[in-house]
């Protein structure tokens, strides 16, 4: 790993403090594996020929072509990098599964994902790899232009126009080696990956993108160290589409910094699958992203929903009397935001089914809490040494409570989360009147970043690095609504205990109550509240920043302006 002493701390996603060596002016030492999923590939010979002419040392490069059920099976062409092999998928299917299989088949220090329709220019691998010789937790995105292979290109020797699709693998290798491949099409007039480059443009190549940089990870040409790949958990194997965005979120939560390298150029031979079927892909990915990418919060505007990966994890110690613990946990379950889970940490392994005197049980308090919450799906009962407690959270934010003497108000969690999102800080510490820590709201990505620096092991050192990389502040817990647990009022359901009421009278009462609490919208109301915003409307905050509406009206989407930034906002929202 990279030592903290000799490597600048990158604030947020600002990669600019790290300056890579110029191409051709450094000595590579790390092994690199190109993982290439392939299902009935059309351009494999062309792509492998371009890889055979790279400036990155051949002895450090291997190419693993992962045959994902091609018919007929993939056969390697003659023109290819010398260390190229085919791995056949034997279990599962899909690009994500193939990427995982390819990574498992290699032990190289650097992993690069490359699609089987990417003609890469001669410095492509070198441009990627130079960053990974400097920093362990960078993710590098290559640059590309979409071109039609059958269109007239420029002959690699510049003598006559020729159809690029007719170039032999030997000609492709020669064109890449002498840099003539850069002129096969005109870079400036070829089609860019528009929405990705819009994000790059308005964020200074992701340097100012903050916590949202991950959305621009596209797997056609992307690289990372194996250490970062493994820390992120690798691709989710059973995903069929959308695996790039999900993995982008995974590496971001593992502490990654993402950046594009515009000298890692390539020609994408034809449009991508997502570009050819944009609306269908968007519809397919909607539930996937809602469940697995909690940082895409506008996809979770519905109230009353539970998600596979909650946005916030709240860690509560199960210590002492059960009464304040219950008051605190119930207060957390009563929050006016739904996107969180409570982790109740206790010595649950001490409890068994052996005979005890129930009223004299030495573990009475702990057993009471177990019985109260073991069937509550929003509460997890975990041991103090459980890796899910000691390790990094799956959720983007983790709120750690020091005890249960104080309980949060109903709006506390939502407002704390909004405060941290506004500042993009990595840590918010809440203290009582005596300066004792009541709670800590931690950004998982910020604390995961500290693992990539040697010599950062203590809590104080981690806090200091998070402060330097993301920012932090200490505030009064009382400002955030923490009150003594016994004083935290929690609404309770009323119970009808009067004598039986006449059925018609009871139903009329229901109608009156319903009219007060859940007004019915007319079709005109629905049309008005869900109408698209005008193109010239100003950019406004996302709806998650506003107090949630507990009524039945549809939540209005935020309006966005026209132009490049408007397109970026719409992309992030949709």
Describe this structure in words.
It is a single chain. The protein is α/β, with parallel strands linked by helices and 574 residues long. It folds into 3 domains: 28-293, Alpha-Beta Complex (Spore Coat Polysaccharide Biosynthesis Protein SpsA, Chain A), CATH 3.90.550; 312-487, Spore Coat Polysaccharide Biosynthesis Protein SpsA, Chain A, CATH 3.90.550.10; 507-573, no CATH class. The chain is built from 18 helices and 23 strands. Strand 9 and strand 10 form a beta hairpin. Helix 1 packs parallel to helix 4 (169-177) and helix 5 packs across helix 18.
Which fold does the CATH topology of the largest domain refer to? Spore Coat Polysaccharide Biosynthesis Protein SpsA, Chain A
Q: What is the radius of gyration computed over CA atoms, rounded to a whole number of angstroms?
A: 28 Å
| Main sheet overview | 7 strands, mixed
Helix-strand makeup class: alpha/beta
Helix content: 25-40%
* Annotation field: number of helices: 18
Q: What is the CATH domain class of the largest domain?
A: Alpha Beta
Let me know the average pLDDT.
Answer: 88
Topology, number of strands: 23
Spatial order of the strands forming the largest sheet: 4-3-2-5-11-7-12
Shape: elongated
Low-confidence stretches: 1-5, 152-162, 528-560
Amino-to-carboxy terminus distance = 37 Å
What is the domain tally?
3
Oligomer: single chain
* Relevant CATH superfamily of the largest domain: Spore Coat Polysaccharide Biosynthesis Protein SpsA, Chain A
Beta fraction: 15-25%
Q: Assign the CATH architecture of the largest domain.
A: Alpha-Beta Complex
């Amino acid at each position: 790993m990279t030592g903290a002493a000799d490597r600048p701390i990158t604030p947020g996603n600002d990669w600019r403090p790290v300056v890579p060596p110029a191409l051709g002016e450094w000595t590579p030492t790390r092994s690199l594996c190109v993982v290439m999923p392939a299902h009935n590939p059309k351009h494999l010979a062309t792509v492998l020929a371009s890889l055979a002419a790279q400036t990155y040392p051949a002895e450090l490069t291997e190419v693993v072509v992962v045959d994902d059920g091609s018919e007929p099976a993939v056969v390697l062409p003659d023109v290819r990098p010398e260390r190229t092999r085919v791995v056949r998928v034997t279990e599962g299917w899909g690009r994500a599964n193939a990427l995982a299989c390819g990574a498992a088949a290699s032990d190289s220090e650097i992993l690069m994902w490359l699609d089987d329709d990417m003609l890469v220019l001669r410095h492509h691998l070198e441009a990627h790899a130079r960053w990974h010789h400097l920093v362990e937790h960078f993710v590098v995105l290559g640059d590309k232009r979409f071109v039609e292979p059958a269109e007239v290109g420029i002959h690699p020797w510049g003598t006559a126009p020729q159809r690029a699709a007719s170039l032999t693998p030997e000609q492709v290798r020669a064109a890449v080696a002498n840099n003539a491949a850069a002129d096969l099409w005109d870079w400036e007039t070829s089609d860019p990956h528009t929405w990705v480059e819009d994000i790059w443009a308005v964020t200074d190549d992701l340097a100012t993108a903050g916590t949202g940089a991950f959305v621009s990870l596209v797997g056609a040409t992307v690289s990372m160290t194996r250490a970062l790949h493994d820390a992120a958990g690798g691709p989710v194997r059973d995903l069929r589409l959308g695996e790039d965005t999900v993995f982008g979120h995974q590496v971001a939560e593992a502490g990654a910094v993402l950046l594009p390298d515009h000298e890692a150029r390539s020609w994408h031979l034809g449009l991508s699958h997502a570009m050819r079927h944009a609306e269908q892909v968007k519809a397919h990915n909607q539930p996937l992203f809602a469940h697995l990418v909690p940082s895409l919060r506008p996809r979770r505007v519905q109230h009353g929903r539970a998600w596979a990966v909650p946005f916030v994890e709240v860690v509560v110690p199960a210590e002492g009397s059960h009464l304040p613990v219950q008051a605190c946990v119930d207060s957390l379950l009563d929050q006016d935001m739904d996107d969180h889970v409570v982790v109740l940490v206790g010595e649950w392994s001490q409890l068994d089914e052996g005979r005890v005197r129930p009223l004299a049980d030495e573990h009475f308090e702990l057993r009471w809490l177990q019985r109260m919450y073991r069937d509550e799906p929003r509460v997890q009962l975990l041991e103090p040494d459980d890796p899910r407690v000691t390790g990094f959270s799956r959720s983007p934010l983790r709120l750690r409570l020091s005890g249960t003497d104080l309980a949060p108000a109903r709006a506390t969690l939502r407002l704390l989360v909004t405060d941290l999102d506004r500042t993009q800080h990595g840590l918010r510490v809440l203290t009582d009147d005596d300066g004792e820590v009541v709670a800590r709201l931690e950004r998982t990505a910020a604390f995961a970043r500290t693992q990539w620096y040697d010599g950062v092991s203590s809590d104080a050192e981690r806090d200091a690095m998070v402060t330097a990389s993301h920012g932090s502040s200490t505030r009064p817990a009382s400002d955030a609504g923490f009150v003594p647990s016994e004083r935290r009022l929690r609404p309770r359901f009323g119970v009808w205990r009067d004598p039986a009421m006449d059925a018609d009278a009871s139903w009329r009462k229901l109608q009156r109550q319903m009219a007060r609490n859940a007004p019915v919208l007319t079709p005109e109301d629905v049309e008005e509240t869900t109408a698209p915003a005008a193109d010239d409307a100003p950019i406004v905050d996302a709806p998650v920043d506003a107090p949630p509406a507990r009524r039945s009206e549809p939540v209005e989407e935020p309006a966005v302006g026209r132009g490049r930034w408007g397109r970026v906002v719409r992309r992030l929202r949709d």
